[in-house]
């Protein structure tokens, strides 16, 4: 059985978990919770992924896979689920990259507040991270809603995971303001069984 090194609040892990639910592969993977931080990666994580990040997928028949995009592509291929459709591939990959960028910026904001002493925090740097998120969500709301209302693909899963993480850690920023279309889409998508089953806990 494969093992997924994970943390319950990681948006990148949640993205993989949603894929497992949507593709019917949850029973093929054992979830292994690890205590991983940017300053002290878990030894199991470091052994599986030299970069020291989660998620990492340990396989029986080959080296561990890491980076959520790699793992999701592998799981999609394994299940022949069609989450990366050839006729929309470049759009899907671009949107998944956008979602991952949102997650990364939101994580960096969280780390700044949690890991740095208050007198060493850099407010302008935090705002620069939020600007990345803000621009990305505006682009999704203005340019990509027709795609998001189409057939399920990997971009839907990645964007939903990203928006839910922003809700979890940076709800006070009120990303929904001025983005009614994206907010309505996220509300509807969040009712999917795969989303309800993987809700992060603060």
TrEMBL record:
<dbReference type="InterPro" id="IPR004045">
    <property type="entry name" value="Glutathione_S-Trfase_N"/>
</dbReference>
<dbReference type="GO" id="GO:0016740">
    <property type="term" value="F:transferase activity"/>
</dbReference>
<dbReference type="GO" id="GO:0005737">
    <property type="term" value="C:cytoplasm"/>
</dbReference>
<dbReference type="InterPro" id="IPR036249">
    <property type="entry name" value="Thioredoxin-like_sf"/>
</dbReference>
<protein>
    <submittedName>
        <fullName>Glutathione S-transferase</fullName>
    </submittedName>
</protein>
<dbReference type="InterPro" id="IPR036282">
    <property type="entry name" value="Glutathione-S-Trfase_C_sf"/>
</dbReference>
<feature type="domain" description="GST N-terminal">
    <location>
        <begin position="1"/>
        <end position="83"/>
    </location>
</feature>
<dbReference type="InterPro" id="IPR050983">
    <property type="entry name" value="GST_Omega/HSP26"/>
</dbReference>
<keyword id="KW-0808">Transferase</keyword>
<dbReference type="Pfam" id="PF13410">
    <property type="entry name" value="GST_C_2"/>
</dbReference>
<dbReference type="Pfam" id="PF13409">
    <property type="entry name" value="GST_N_2"/>
</dbReference>
């Amino acid at each position: 059985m494969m093992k997924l090194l994970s943390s319950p609040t990681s948006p990148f892990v949640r993205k993989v978990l949603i894929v497992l639910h949507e593709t019917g592969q949850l029973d093929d993977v054992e979830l292994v919770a690890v205590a991983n931080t940017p300053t002290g990666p878990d030894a199991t994580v470091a052994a599986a992924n030299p970069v020291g990040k989660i998620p990492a997928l340990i396989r029986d028949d080959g080296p561990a896979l890491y980076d959520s995009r790699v793992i999701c592509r592998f799981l999609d291929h394994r299940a022949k689920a069609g989450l990366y459709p050839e006729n929309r591939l470049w759009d899907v990959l671009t949107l998944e990259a956008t979602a991952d960028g949102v997650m990364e910026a939101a994580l960096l904001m969280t780390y700044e507040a949690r890991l740095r002493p208050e007198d060493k925090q850099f407010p302008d740097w935090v705002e620069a991270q939020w600007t990345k998120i803000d621009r990305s969500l505006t682009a999704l709301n203005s340019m990509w809603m027709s795609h998001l209302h189409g057939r399920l693909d990997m971009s839907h899963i990645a964007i939903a995971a990203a928006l839910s993480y922003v809700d979890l850690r940076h709800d006070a920023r009120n990303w929904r303001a001025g983005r009614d279309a994206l907010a309505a889409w996220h509300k509807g998508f969040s009712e999917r069984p795969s989303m309800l089953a993987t809700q992060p806990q603060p």
